[in-house]
UniProtKB/TrEMBL annotation, chain A:
GO terms for biological process: transmembrane transport. Residues 69-275 form the ABC transmembrane type-1 domain. The keyword Nucleus does not apply. Coiled coil: none annotated. It comes from the Bacteria. It is found in: Cell membrane. The chain crosses the membrane at residues 64-94, 101-122, 157-178, 211-234, 254-274. This is ABC transporter permease subunit. Pfam families: BPD_transp_1 (PF00528). It is a multi-pass membrane protein. GO terms for cellular component: plasma membrane. It comes from Paracoccus limosus. Keywords: Cell membrane, Membrane, Transmembrane, Transmembrane helix, Transport.
TrEMBL record, chain B:
The keyword Zinc does not apply. Residues 7-237 form the ABC transporter domain. InterPro entries: AAA+_ATPase, ABC_SmlMolc_Importer, ABC_transporter-like_ATP-bd, ABC_transporter-like_CS, Mo/tungstate-bd_C_term_dom, P-loop_NTPase, Transp-assoc_OB_typ2. One of its GO terms (molecular function) is transmembrane transporter activity. One of its GO terms (biological process) is quaternary ammonium group transport. This is ATP-binding cassette domain-containing protein. It comes from the Bacteria. PROSITE patterns: ABC_TRANSPORTER_1, ABC_TRANSPORTER_2. PANTHER family: SPERMIDINE/PUTRESCINE IMPORT ATP-BINDING PROTEIN POTA, SPERMIDINE_PUTRESCINE IMPORT ATP-BINDING PROTEIN POTA. It holds the Pfam family ABC_tran.
Length: 284, 360
């Protein structure tokens, strides 16, 4: 506003807004967008240098590869559902009952995210190894088992580890939406004869569906792309990121690895599209 | 107590930790009456309403609706209707679904729900809005739908929690009359919580003025306005000129800031007394000459306020302020209205009230 400017100060033009984000944009172009384009281009490049869809035909026409994609989606779905079931009550408690302990709970929630993924994963190994804490407790201290259980390198432990680190995303997504629900809506429902459980089903749950949706898509996408956790703890199943790793290190078929990562990216983009649609439809 | 009241609060108290929000409150509402709980924020009126609704449990006392003690019933079993300040319509449901909600909870048939929704939409004159979502309606329309939703189950008592607080002034006034007319037509017992004295006076059969968790005075709007029993009521409901002073030996008058004020009734000599006079009861100029209770005043200020004019006078050696209202366009005879002009003012002692008497 010109009237507030000091009378003799030289009129200085403000920097255009786009200049401020330029460094970040250049960085992302150089190290994210260009490699991504290169990667996609490699997946379409034939042996003669021309355009080919052959890799995608092989990838999507092969029973084994389709099985891997299905297992990837199945694993992420299971993790997502468990996160939603565990996360909703936590989010509800956080918003409605935690009061001044809310900050402590949020810190405890995001603490796993502040730990290096390698440390976290080795932690699970220490707990669940053949001679790890859990097995020692079951075999030696309680005498419940004759032999230690095979706990590591099973789908179960991989799911537990993924849920552990992804549940905060779910909780925070749901809590944000729950926070915005006017409690008078719930009181209004009760005045009209709805029991507390009915009120939850008819009012609270539908109004927080948005948060569950956002959380679910976040968790699903991150689980879909998870790699380190599955390499170190997984076993008995194969996911797309693991397969891509194999293509790079063992088979050394870079073109095929690129095609697989494009498929993974397309799944992620489809999720993002779903989320945008969901939020727009709900837009209350 | 009588068995004829529709809603009875029997020595109800509510403590929040060390703070007592409502103290030993007793209130009887006759069937079909609208009682307004009026007071500043924090006076306990909303807590009282929430105890009737069942969202707060009284620390002591009983709440009886009709002939049933509901003190220990959860809200959804009390069969009450409630309208909130922000309407609280379910944003994810259409207007018709909002109105049908209570019927659905009660397990009524679809045909019954459809008929009742149509009937309620007609009642609030929004017959064609059933398929819209609440956010597509104006504030006043949303409030009408909230009213329809709360009345669809024929509740035994209707609770209104600052129902018009979110509306602009013109709409608020017309809604006051509208809700009052509907309440009288349906003959539904109603408890209204408001901090707006105009709203209380327009809508209520009885006003209960509350302060610090207590009902200071309850009565018909005109009675509470004209005969305030305490200084707080005199000042909260409308405006008042209040004169504090010690009663002279005659017992007929007090001296307040060097001005002699005649009392409406005799008081014991030496007592500290406050006298309240409404600004519209103050007589200005020639008309005051004949009054036994009159005094010289200096005009300090004169403000036009639409329906009336406010005169601000100073009286006595301490230049004590006195406010007087005149209907607009009826300038007082014998007063030119110049600043610092000296004139007579006065009032009929019958138009003044003694409030908060402290005998020593």
């Amino acid at each position: 506003m010109s009237p507030t400017r000091a009378p003799h100060a030289p009129a200085r033009r403000p920097l255009p807004g786009w200049l401020l984000v330029l460094p970040a944009v250049l960085f992302l172009c150089a190290f994210f967008v260009l490699p991504l384009i290169g990667n996609a281009a490699r997946s379409f490049e034939g042996a003669d240098g021309g355009f080919t869809l052959l890799r995608y035909l092989v990838l999507l026409g092969d029973r084994f590869n389709l099985g891997v994609i299905a297992e990837t989606v199945a694993l992420s779905s299971v993790v997502t559902v468990i996160c939603a079931v565990i996360g909703y009550p936590v989010a509800y408690y956080l918003v409605r009952h935690a009061g001044r302990f809310g900050g402590v709970i949020i810190f405890l929630l995001i603490a796993p995210l502040l730990t290096s993924i390698i440390m976290r994963t080795y932690g699970w190994q220490v707990l669940f190894a053949r001679r790890g804490l859990v097995n020692n407790f079951l075999v030696q201290d309680l005498g419940l088992l004759d032999r230690p259980l095979q706990l590591l390198n099973t789908p179960g432990i991989a799911i537990v580890a993924l849920v552990h680190v992804l549940v905060p995303y779910m909780v925070l997504s749901i809590a944000t939406v729950l926070q915005g629900i006017d409690q008078r809506l719930e009181e209004g429902a009760q005045m009209l004869g709805a029991s507390p459980w009915r009120t939850f089903r008819e009012v609270t749950l539908p109004l927080s569906a948005d948060g569950i949706g956002t959380g679910a898509i976040l968790v699903f996408m991150i689980a879909n792309g998870s790699f380190v956790t599955l390499v170190l703890l997984g076993g008995g199943f194969q996911t797309l990121p693991l397969l891509i790793y194999q293509q790079f290190t063992t088979t050394r078929d870079f073109g095929m690895a690129s095609a697989m990562s494009v498929v993974l990216l397309v799944i992620a983009l489809a999720c993002l599209y779903l989320q945008l649609r969901l939020v727009r439809r709900q837009g209350v | 107590m009588t068995g004829s009241s529709a809603l009875r609060l029997d020595r109800v108290r509510k403590d929040f930790g060390p703070v007592t929000a409502v103290q030993e409150m007793t209130l009887d509402i006759a069937p079909g009456q609208l009682v307004a709980l009026l007071g500043p924020s924090g006076c306990g009126k909303t807590t009282t309403l929430r105890m009737v609704a069942g969202f707060e449990t009284p620390s002591a006392g009983r709440i009886v609706i009709g002939d049933r003690d509901v003190t220990d019933l959860p809200p959804h079993r009390r069969n009450l209707g409630m309208v909130f300040q922000n309407y609280s319509l379910f944003p994810h449901r259409t207007v018709a679904e909002n109105i049908a909600f209570g019927l659905r909870m009660a397990g009524r048939s679809r045909a019954e729900q459809r008929d009742a929704v149509a009937r309620m939409l007609d009642l609030v004159q929004l017959g064609d809005r059933g398929d819209m979502y609440p956010r597509q309606l104006s504030g006043g329309q949303q409030q009408r739908i909230a009213l329809a939703r709360s009345l669809v189950l024929d509740p035994r008592v209707l609770l209104l929690d600052e129902p018009l607080g979110a509306l602009d002034k013109a709409l608020r006034e017309s809604m006051q009359f509208e809700i009052r007319a509907m309440q009288q037509r349906l003959g539904i017992t109603t408890l209204l919580v408001t901090h707006d004295q105009e709203e209380a006076m327009t809508m209520a059969d009885q006003i209960a003025v509350m302060q610090s968790g207590r009902v200071l005075q309850i009565g018909a709007p005109a009675a509470v306005y004209n005969r305030p029993e305490s200084r707080f009521v005199a000042e909260f409901l409308g405006t008042s000129n209040i004169f504090d002073g010690r009663v002279r030996p005659s017992g007929q008058e007090i001296e307040a800031d060097g001005v002699t004020i005649r009392l409406p009734r005799a008081a014991s000599p030496g007592a500290q007394v406050s006298v309240s006079v409404r600004p519209e009861r103050i007589v200005i100029g020639e008309a005051a000459h004949a009054l036994p209770n009159r005094m010289r005043a200096r005009l300090a200020d004169r403000v036009f306020r639409g329906t009336h004019e406010t005169f601000r006078f100073e009286i006595g050696p301490a230049a004590r302020q006195v406010h007087a209202h005149r209907q607009a366009g009826t300038g007082p005879a014998g007063v030119a209205g110049r600043p610092q002009e000296d004139c007579w003012i006065g009032w009929d002692t019958a138009d003044s009230v003694i409030v908060t008497v402290n005998d020593r």
